[in-house]
Amino acid sequence: MDKPQFVYVNYIRTTPEKLWAAITNPEFARQYWGGHENVSNWKKGSKWQHIADDEKHTVRVTGEVLESIPPKRLVLTWADPAAPEDVSRVTFEIEPIDDLVRLNVVHGEFKPGSVMANKVSQGWPLVLASMKSYLETGKGFDIWAAKGGRC
Question: I need a labelling partner for 29 at 20 to 30 A (CA). Which of 14, 60, 111, 142 fits?
Answer without folding.
Answer: 111
